[in-house]
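Hello,

Following up on my earlier ticket. Below are the two sequence lines again, exactly as submitted.
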Amino acid sequence: MTQHVTVTGKEVEHIASLARLQVSKKERDALSGNLDTILSSFSSIQDIDTKGVPTASDASGLSNVLREDVVDGEYICAPEDVLKRVPDVYDGQVRVQAVFNDKQI
Amino acid sequence: MSEVPLTIHATREAVQKGDLSLSDVINHSYRQIGLWDSQVHAFLEVFENGTAKQEGRLYGIPIAVKDNICTAQGHTTAASQMLKKFMAPYNATAVQRIIDEGAVVVGKTNLDEFGMGSTSEYSSYTTTKNPWNTKHVPGGSSGGSAVAVASNMALAALGTDTGGSIRQPAALCGTVGLKPTYGRVSRFGVISYASSLDQVGPITRTVRDAAIMLQVLAGQDKKDATSSPERVETYESYCGKSIAGMTVGIPKEFFSSDLDSSMADIVHAAIDTFKDAGANVKEVSLPFTDVAIAAYYLIAKAEASSNLARYDGLRYESVDVEATDLIDRYMKTRGEHFGPEVKRSIIMGTYALSQGYCDAWYKQASKVRTLIQREYEKAFQDVDVLATPVSPEIAFEIGSKMDDPFSVYMSDVCTVPVNVAGLPALSVPCGFMGVMPVGFQLIAPAFQEGKLLQMGHAYEQSHDWWKKVPELAK
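Thanks for your patience. The regenerated structure is below:
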């Protein structure tokens, strides 16, 4: 059975801030409506008895293996190739705005 | 010069016999692009004057690449404003493998932004049009790749399939689409949408060409830890094998009342072809089909919300925003450069993973995924392959569902269970409704792509749908 799920505009705002995503008021209202429709329709998934059923990770059936901790040049992109694509570089490093600004300190 | 054939297989033969030169082949591809791409918008970028780097199994074959797959040449935008200026420093493994076999990459094809969509309308650059009727969508998200092949602009194209993004546009454009088993083809250099579901595969005109492409693409890659060590078979050898005695399962849940009745008739007629060739057909039941779409979207969007966290405006070339501090920069960069479906995905995925909701949504979906995988394993104890529709309807008109994202989600109902279960599946053209193509889907157990190619090729031998070319591209 599907049940009615409501995701309010305020909840969308909260989620958007967690996801570091600016949304306008218009977008917020549209997203709230979209999520109501989509999640209400998907809510029947909660009726399925999954007691004792493990979560699936992916379909490959592979288990994790660690490689040896040695440098393999084939994996490595030259630092200058990477930095060429970075908007703001200073002395071979990525420069960003201050993480801690006056307000937060 | 004789005419360039429609397939890789025939083109290779014509070149070997000396009936065609490599320049005839590549020039034909560029000529088709020049003539028709302004009408169908399959390409985001064309790589002019491409040549084969070396001889190989795809020597001189023009191939188009979906623009969420990294190429060292040109841009890789994933059809997003976020990556407008991004030029990848390397080729994806799939691209490197076709180049190493002599293929010529003719350009990058349009898609729904980051692969999120089923119509190619969510590209932030252009809307790709269906060459059979340019008022209609080509399907998606690999819409540009399907249109490039359907319009003879390339003999094959690479696509990616997270929930049907190779098979559905292939069907809606009258081409063949192969989604390999999860892990069969390396994902290295593919821009991630949902890492546990994404898979690279070919769009071609025939099943044999899909086999030729898969042979080049398949195999373990140390740059992708989820690529499988499973042995790679000789796929082309399955094309031409008898299908007598094989069993085709028809899952009744895929033929529900929501399916267009003419579409159901066409798919049933396709399945009858297998009976005529000596295969057994039996009805089977996959009761979790109904909830597969919910499980799929909850998992896909949760993974997407995590994968897309990397787009913060501090890497992948500059993104112009006026920001007061770092958090403000993140918020604005993402708010101003992601499109509507990507935002919807991030919000839905973050919601499904957030504290208080994670158990009810994401974890429950992941458990249901296990049940779906088990259900398919059980079904394959009795049948060799499953046959279903690809899409519940033919390509609809551009713009007709733009305001209704939920109904676009529901158009993936026949394709997403395959990704949830990690299985291989093939979409094969099987007729027309009016002027618009229809395809049917074959699904096989994990790593048994050979069976798909065997059945698909057998079907193709008794029909010539694949020879049909849209008027526009003739």
